[in-house]
């Protein structure tokens, strides 16, 4: 028979002592736990009660950034040329979305075009700050907007609202001078950091836009405004149930910018360019205000606001006539015969007699023959400007040398950039002997006499842009002051003066009078610009100067434009001012590869641009009406269409190679 195992204590007192020690240990630990718990609860509920109440309230409310309305840009008459329009859009808040992929799948069924942008949307959502709404699609149709709201219960974290989108009502008319807005990119952020500046948090908001090119870029910080925020109450699923008005702050709109441009003149300028490429600038000769600064062909900046499709951008970038390039500021061309008044003024300052007679036999000889476009016979300075005689100005140029010409050219506005408040200008090139020493050809730093005849007729290494031509023409018309151009009239209601002081022109009034009389004769009967420069405004007439500049070396071949590809044709230029007896406006037009004859393509377009400016001027219009003149149809209005060739091919506007040393350019 087996027995059960058992434990025996030899002493009853030993058993009782062991039990009591265990009781005290367990009891002590329990008491310490209760004291600690009581202390912690007291701290949370009494000492830190207010702190946790605040945190709980912040959990209940989210602060959502409100983008500020971008400042308006207006023309001189208050017409909005860059504004904001209402736009329906759909957004996603990452922190309120349970499953981003599933949400995008559902959105793709409602708006199929978002499927193509899925990767970009995910990238933007992941890069956005917490609780920051990320635009998925803008410019929703009413049907799309209604669908999103209808299926809202099945789309947590998705919302549809109405916001302000940048809008350019005149499309391409102001595209180059105004620029456009686009999303900030990594390069923008890096550029700010390189300047050791703090990156504004608003730049990380996917719906924010910054200025690109033109005024939008130059005045971006003034146009942005100051962001605001809405403090909204959300439920457990992240849905907005209320807004805390007291905790929200309104956004502050950006500053309003008023330009000196005139929308009517600008629109007409782009219209008359048609399919041609080039630039045009019209200025007030009294104060330098720019009423028109257009580049053609242009593009619609509205395409870039929401992100231009890559195919569309590639089509614009690859088009031979380069619509994305600003040919008014960055396109540099040889001025051709529009430069001849510079040579005349330089010679008169050195004591030349304007009545001196130089015989044109159809060519100028200096080691070889430099051709003229006609045999003009005996010419005075006035005659030579009227007939655009190459031989006359080649003779003066060789007698003076390049340095005297260069000094006069710079004084009249060439070889420099102007502080318009926008960037992107190219200074062009006014060559002289020092320039040649600094830029030797194959190690040869000598300026040779054979280079000077071409310089005297506005070719060779000489290059200018349309703005410089307009400044130069304004100074010719003014005859007293070195007028400085101004583009920005006011910012935030504060008038903006010209960037530089206006100085006196270092030429005698008598010298200007001779040149002006020659330019008046250009648009008179027998002048090179007569046919296409008639304004048809009664007593109000226009003075001008034609110009043609070779774009390539033709060798011994014919330079006639007929049958040649567009890129092989000459550049066509025209400068003018009006009225003749009391100049008020000056215009410069460059038609890239416009063909031979400076009056054929440039003059009719300059005429149409000038007509709009003159007819909008109350004083000049009153003068026309008082004269009894009755306006019927634009004179030569059909000429613009007749001289507008169909597009063919083109070379980049800013890449103009130096033409050959001789020319028989018809002017």
TrEMBL record:
> Which GO terms of the molecular function aspect are on file?
penicillin binding; peptidoglycan L,D-transpeptidase activity; serine-type D-Ala-D-Ala carboxypeptidase activity
Q: Name one GO cellular component term.
A: plasma membrane
Chain spans, region Disordered = 536-565, 628-667
- Domain named Penicillin-binding protein dimerisation: which ranges? 68-243
Some GO term, biological process aspect, for this entry: which one? Answer: peptidoglycan biosynthetic process
Task: Report biased composition (Low complexity) as residue ranges.
Answer: 647-656
Q: How does it sit in the membrane?
A: Single-pass membrane protein
Query: Which residues fall in a compositionally biased region of kind Polar residues?
Result: 547-556
The name of this protein is: Penicillin-binding protein 2
Per the UniProt record, the source organism is: Brevundimonas variabilis
């Amino acid at each position: 028979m087996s027995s059960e195992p058992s434990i025996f204590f030899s002493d009853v007192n030993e058993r009782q002592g062991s039990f009591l020690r265990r009781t005290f240990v367990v009891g002590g630990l329990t008491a310490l736990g209760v004291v600690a718990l009581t202390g912690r609860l007291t701290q949370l509920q009494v000492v830190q009660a207010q702190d946790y109440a605040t945190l709980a309230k912040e959990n209940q409310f989210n602060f959502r950034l409100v983008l500020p309305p971008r400042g308006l840009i207006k023309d001189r008459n208050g017409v909005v040329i860059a504004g904001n329009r209402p736009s329906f859009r759909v957004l996603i808040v990452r922190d309120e979305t349970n499953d981003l992929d599933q949400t995008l799948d559902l959105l793709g069924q409602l708006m199929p075009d978002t499927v193509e942008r899925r990767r970009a949307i995910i990238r933007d959502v992941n890069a956005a700050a917490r609780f920051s709404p990320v635009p998925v699609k803008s410019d929703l149709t009413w049907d799309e907007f209604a669908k999103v709201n209808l299926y809202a219960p099945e789309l947590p974290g998705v919302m549809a609202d109405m916001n302000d989108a940048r809008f350019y009502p005149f499309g391409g008319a102001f595209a180059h001078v105004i620029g456009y807005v686009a999303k900030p990119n990594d390069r923008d952020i890096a550029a700010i950091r390189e300047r050791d500046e703090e990156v504004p948090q608003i730049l990380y908001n996917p719906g924010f836009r910054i200025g690109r090119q033109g005024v939008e870029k130059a005045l971006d910080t003034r146009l942005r405004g100051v962001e605001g925020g809405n403090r909204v109450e959300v439920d457990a699923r992240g849905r907005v149930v209320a807004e805390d008005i007291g905790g929200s702050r309104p956004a502050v709109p950006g500053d309003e910018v008023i330009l000196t441009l005139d929308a009517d003149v600008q629109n007409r300028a782009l219209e008359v360019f048609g399919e041609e490429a080039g630039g045009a600038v019209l200025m007030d000769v009294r104060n330098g205000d720019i009423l028109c600064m257009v580049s053609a062909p242009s593009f619609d900046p509205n395409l870039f606001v929401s992100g231009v499709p890559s195919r569309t951008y590639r089509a614009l970038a690859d088009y031979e006539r380069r619509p994305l390039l600003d040919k008014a500021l960055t396109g540099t061309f040889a001025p051709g015969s529009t430069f001849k008044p510079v040579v005349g003024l330089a010679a008169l300052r050195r004591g030349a007699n304007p009545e001196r007679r130089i015989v044109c036999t159809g060519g100028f000889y200096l080691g070889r023959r430099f051709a003229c476009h006609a045999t003009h016979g005996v010419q005075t300075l006035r005659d030579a400007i009227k007939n655009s005689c190459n031989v006359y100005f080649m003779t003066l140029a060789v007698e003076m040398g390049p340095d005297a010409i260069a000094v006069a050219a710079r004084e009249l506005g060439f070889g420099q950039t102007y502080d318009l408040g926008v960037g992107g200008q190219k200074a062009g090139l006014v060559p002289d002997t020092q320039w040649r020493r600094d830029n030797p050809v194959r190690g040869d730093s000598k300026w040779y006499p054979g280079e000077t005849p071409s310089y005297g007729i506005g070719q060779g290494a000489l290059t200018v842009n349309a703005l410089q031509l307009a400044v130069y023409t304004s100074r010719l018309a003014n005859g007293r002051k070195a007028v400085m151009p101004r583009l920005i009239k006011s910012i935030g209601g504060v008038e903006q003066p010209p960037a530089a002081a206006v100085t006196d022109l270092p030429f005698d009034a008598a010298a200007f009078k001779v040149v002006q009389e020659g330019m008046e004769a250009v648009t008179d009967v027998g002048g090179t610009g007569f046919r296409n420069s008639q304004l048809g405004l009664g007593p109000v007439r226009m003075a001008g100067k034609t110009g043609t500049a070779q774009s390539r070396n033709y060798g011994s071949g014919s330079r006639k434009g007929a049958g040649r590809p567009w890129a092989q044709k000459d550049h066509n230029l025209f400068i003018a001012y009006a009225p003749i007896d009391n100049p008020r406006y000056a215009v410069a037009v460059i038609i890239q590869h416009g063909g031979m004859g400076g009056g054929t393509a440039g003059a009719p377009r300059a005429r149409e641009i000038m007509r709009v400016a003159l007819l909008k001027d109350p004083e000049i219009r009153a003068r026309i009406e008082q004269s009894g003149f009755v306006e019927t149809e634009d004179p030569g209005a059909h000429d613009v269409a007749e001289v507008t060739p169909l597009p063919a091919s083109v070379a980049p506007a800013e890449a103009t190679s130096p033409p050959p040393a001789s020319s028989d350019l018809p002017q």
